[in-house]
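User: Some background: our group keeps a shared notebook of sequences we're curious about, and every so often someone picks one and asks for a predicted structure to add to the entry. Today it's my turn. The entry only has the sequence so far, pasted here. Could you supply the structure so I can complete it?
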Amino acid sequence: MPSDNSAPTTLPTTSYRALLRNREFAGLYASFTLTVAASTLSGFALGTLVDQQTRSPFLTAVSMYGATFATVLGALTLMSVADGSRPRRTLVTLQCVSLVGVAAQAVPGLPLAARFGLLLVLGFFQSLGTGTRMGLLAEVVPTSTYALARSLMNITSGGTAILGYATGALLLRHLDPREVFVIAAGLTGLGLGVVAATVRERSIRLTRRPGLRQTWTTNTALFSHSGQRALLLNLWVPNGLIVGCEALFISYAPDHAGALLAAGSAGMLLGDLAVGRLLTADQRRRCAFALRLLLAVPYVLFAANPPTLVVTAAVFVASAGFAATLPLQEQLLALTPDPVRGQVQGVESAGRMTWQGIGAAIAGGVAQHLTPGTTITAVAAVSIAITVFSQPFVARARARTVRDERVGA
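Assistant: Of course. Here's the predicted structure to add to the notebook entry:
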């Protein structure tokens, strides 16, 4: 699909402030921010609760990212709802389900098995919500400002996570984790209200019957495309393994885990700001490989068990590499037909989230036998190897994207 944001010599023609004057985008943005805040607080609270009760690195890591395992089920079964004819109603309904799930975590005396079950249910419906939200985003803003809109949302996600982890650490000094779940549920409900008040129903979509068959048809076409496969691999696996490293922060340094997680979010914020706002689309594509390497290389320092200040700085620098997702997402959008944008973006997000869960499980499982520092280094090394091995395939996908855009222009 042609894109009009690929000119190599011009900067984006709008600003974050101009984007926020769009009422629908502002609504999607605000609800997204509240959802991230709620997810950060609830994830940190659950991880702390599980660590207190089990002292298991594996269970603690899985509790923080366990919801991501179920996102793949959404991608494989009902993700076509993201491109349905009434996306606003779909998004509101899915937000309601999330509210109920987060609120249920606050039930006193809830067994850990039930909490993990709730994580899976939430992950399933959250994946559908992400696909619907991203599909709406592609319709609410012009194609030329899509990268800028995603950049703003990524930056806000990082900033909100910083505040969420810092606030979560502060709250958990004075409150029970179940009380933090109540606060997270309140934020989720507020996000639901914002969506309902600001986003209008779209009338430009084709009438189609979402369901298992439609989902599989689109997914088959997606994975049969070599360029899209390469992009998805690099959006999913290296990032997921590094998130697995982050899932060991509580086990690695229980007293400094909040600072490490906040440093990671701050680095992600800075990277997305620089890459999304200051670089052109062509420049973003050229630096994507270096950013993917940056994401993993600093974690090698964990093997030497350096001082906390050193590892905090390493996490901050490494997390700027998460900005590599932005040029890869742009290329994926450029290769995606308009009628299935929501589903493809939902599959991309679901796969990325699922691999975060897989990465957390891998890292947590290995840490049962090795020290957390050694495990972090080993997992980061695997991420580096995958990035290097897959680079030729990503380069071919980039060449295909540029060629298609030139033909469209």
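Suggested note for the entry: Confidence is low (pLDDT under 50) at residues 1-13. Residues 44 and 81 are 30 Å apart (CA to CA).
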